[in-house]
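Researcher: Sequence recovery benchmark, item below. Answer with residues only.
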């Protein structure tokens, strides 16, 4: 909306998912890395993605590449999950915002760019600054106008319109003739917690349309656990021990994460578990921590 209503709406719009930029760091935290491998990825490949590189700048750089910052010149660049941007790239991003200049990897010529910067995060940037994980000068340079978007579970009245939008979008893309969603399913979706926020809803509607053969999305097109009526507690009868334990772990971790707005470090300190082990549990129990925090733009 900001982009389409701006004076730069006819210019390029470039999106960067910072979680992808930092995925190698998280992978290393969980599984380790070989000597030299992680440094190359974080300091060279990621920088190249943002700022481009000259031919021969590093192994595999067989030709000149324009980075996303250069491609966005004159338009808008959007950093999704800016809180996950590796620290070593934050200083260079600050220079782009402050002075509109950068160099390609392996280059000596300073290039100029004119762009508008938008950023979104579900992390507490102020806290990251205090922990030394996010540059304070970059925080203040970004925090000119801040918009806070509540999680989807706090604005369930928007779910019907979002579903209608996604039905129209994916019916066209998948060449289906879906007209609407059944009232019972809509009611159940409005009761869901939506830890993955709008992205989770969009993925679920797309999945349902893939499986649909008629014109109406019904309960059979959605995951069974989503369609189950919420219960106040866990039923004892017919539940295996390991399933009950897994459910308890999931509920316990989710509720603790909520207390700390999805902050993994504070959650780990509270319950006395290492962060690396927590990430393993999140993967095992299918917990999406990104949906447990509010957006901060």
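Model:
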């Amino acid at each position: 909306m900001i982009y389409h209503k701006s004076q730069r709406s006819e210019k390029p719009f470039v999106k960067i998912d910072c979680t992808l930029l930092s995925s190698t760091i998280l992978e290393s935290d969980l599984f380790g890395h070989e000597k030299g491998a992680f440094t190359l990825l974080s300091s060279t490949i990621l920088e190249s993605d943002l700022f481009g590189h000259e031919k021969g700048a590093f192994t595999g750089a067989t030709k000149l590449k324009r980075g996303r910052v250069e491609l966005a010149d004159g338009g808008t660049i959007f950093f999704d999950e800016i809180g996950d941007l590796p620290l070593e790239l934050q200083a260079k991003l600050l220079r782009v915002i402050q002075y509109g200049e950068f160099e390609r990897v392996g280059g000596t010529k300073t290039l100029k760019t004119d762009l508008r910067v938008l950023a979104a995060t579900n992390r507490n940037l102020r806290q990251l600054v205090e922990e030394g994980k996010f540059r304070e000068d970059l925080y203040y340079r970004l925090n000119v106008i801040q918009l806070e978007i509540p999680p989807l579970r706090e604005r369930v009245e928007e779910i019907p319109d979002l579903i209608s939008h996604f039905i129209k979008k994916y019916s066209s893309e998948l060449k289906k003739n879906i007209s609407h969603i059944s009232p019972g399913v809509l009611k159940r979706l409005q009761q869901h917690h939506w830890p993955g926020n709008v992205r989770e809803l969009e993925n679920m509607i797309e999945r349902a349309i893939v499986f649909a053969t008629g014109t109406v999305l019904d309960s059979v097109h959605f995951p069974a656990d989503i369609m189950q009526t919420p219960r106040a507690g866990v039923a004892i009868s017919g539940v295996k021990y390991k399933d009950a334990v897994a459910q308890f772990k999931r509920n316990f971790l989710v509720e603790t994460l909520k207390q700390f707005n999805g902050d993994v470090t504070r959650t780990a300190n509270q319950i006395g578990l290492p962060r690396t082990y927590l990430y393993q549990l999140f993967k095992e129990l299918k917990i999406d921590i990104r949906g447990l925090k509010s957006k901060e733009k």
